[in-house]
Amino acid sequence: MLQKWISFIRINLAVILIVFTGCDTQPSSDEFEKNFHITDVKPALFNDDHNSEGFLIQKSNGNLLLLFRVDPGMEGSHTGTEGYIAQITYYPDEDRWGEVQEVYNSHRYDDRNIHGGITNDGRIVLFFRHMDIVDGRNVTVERYFMYSDDDGATWSGPHRSESWSAPEKPDPRFGVWGTGQMIYNEEISRYSMPGYGNHILYMTHSEDGSNWDEINFLIEDEERVLTEIAAAWTGNEHLIALIRDNRTEPDNQLLQIKSRNNGKTWSEPQRTNMPKNHWGAAPQLLYDQNRDLLIAMVSDRNTRDHSENSLFIYTARPDEVYENPGNWSFEHEITRPWADEKYRNTRPLNLSFYGYPTIVPINENEYLVVFTERATMEGTEQADLYYFRLMSN
After folding, report:
1. Domain count of the chain?
2. Other CB atoms within 10 Å distance of the CB of residue 191
3. N or C: fewer beta carbons within 10 Å in the chain?
């Protein structure tokens, strides 16, 4: 009888252990300390075109739209003058991508540096520049914006802004926009797009996205090479921005500035802890208002071996980092796909990681993230798009 009871207890203990330790859906121990977990990285657009840097929005039907740059064919390149603006739809319920559609093609210049966002009324706004190659140099010909009121089916533009200076003039407003997406400040009822040029950071503003004739300067810093910028409004007149310092040195992480008066004045740049030990490029920043949580993304390149380049995700409560820029919490490091065994033989690892992540909510518990890989093939730069889903714990 005693032996039967011992066997009964052993069987039930085994069942309990299987239930509590053998279930694949249970998060790992350190997952409980994180705000998000991530799905597998998958190709979004893998072909012979140079597909790169863009931004995501959610359409009125819940599907997601990526607007980005395409330079077609194997002869396409990072700065080839055949580049044009395209869009592709992601269907989250089916986890699949649609067909690429052309949005705008000048058929003369490189239509590039595509960034933007969507208004509360559903107006999609995109910013870009015409670039040409003159005497072997990349030259900005003009900057434009376009907008769509029907989920990207038709577009108005290209339009110019009276507040943006002509590219040929030595004016600090010269430059392209940053890597962040368009933000909305409820307290001043303005949409804003951060930008940079000649060591100066600025923001251009609009009430509804149909014109961008307001502009204000943030800071000027001759000692640092201030370039790509992403910003967020976090309420109570507070704004925060992350900036790429274009000196490619180890431990040259992103810089941070803040404003406590809705952008009228800004603090001096301070070093963050993103990414740890490496140079940070192409920042992305988003404020999850429901969680009171900032989500930051940054990629590294040029300061370690190409095979080790990664995309980093950090989070923070606004009050944790406004006074302490080194207080961002590390969430995930995603190694570049072409260094992963699953994709290792698809492209050569002969260029640093491109990165340029963009993020958009799918629903209140999940985000979509798209980023860019690249390599040199047949004498030109090849680039493809990858994606994963960031899911709340």
Report:
1. 1
2. 22
3. N
Pick the closest to residue 66 from 89, 92, 42, 32 (CA basis).
89
Tokens 């730069």 sit on residue: 381
> What is the tens place of the pLDDT at every residue in 187-240?
999 999 999 877 789 999 999 999 999 999 999 887 888 999 999 999 999 999
Domain that holds residue 209: 38-392
Q: Please provide the DSSP assignment of 204-225 as one string.
A: EEESSSS---EEEEEEE-SSS-
The token pair that represents 287 in the structure block: 């404020």
Stretch (H or E) spanning 279: none
Site of tokens 């900036």: 243
- CATH code assigned at 59: 2.120.10.10
For the chain, residues with pLDDT lower than 70 are 1-32, 170, 172-176
Query: What is the percent of the chain where pLDDT is above 70?
Result: 90
Task: Calculate the CA dihedral of residues 194, 245, 273, 201 and round it to 10 degrees.
Answer: -30
Task: Check: CB of residue 252 under 8 Å from CB of residue 243.
Answer: no
Residue 313 CB: number of other CB atoms within 10 A?
26
Evaluate whether residue 330 is within a structural domain.
yes
Closest-CA residue to 209 (of 192, 195, 194, 196): 192
Contacts of 236 (CB under 8 A, 6+ apart): none
- pTM comes to 0.90
Q: Quickly count: other Cβ atoms within 10 Å of residue 29's Cβ.
A: 7
Per DSSP, the residues of 87-154 read: EEEEETTTTEE---EEEE--SSSEEEEEEEEE-TT--EEEEEEEEEEETTEEEEEEEEEEEESSTTSS
Residue 222 has a pLDDT of 79
Burial 335-363 (b: 16+ CB within 10 A, else e): ebbbbeeebeeebebebbbbbbbbbbbbe
| Residue 374 forms part of a structural domain | yes
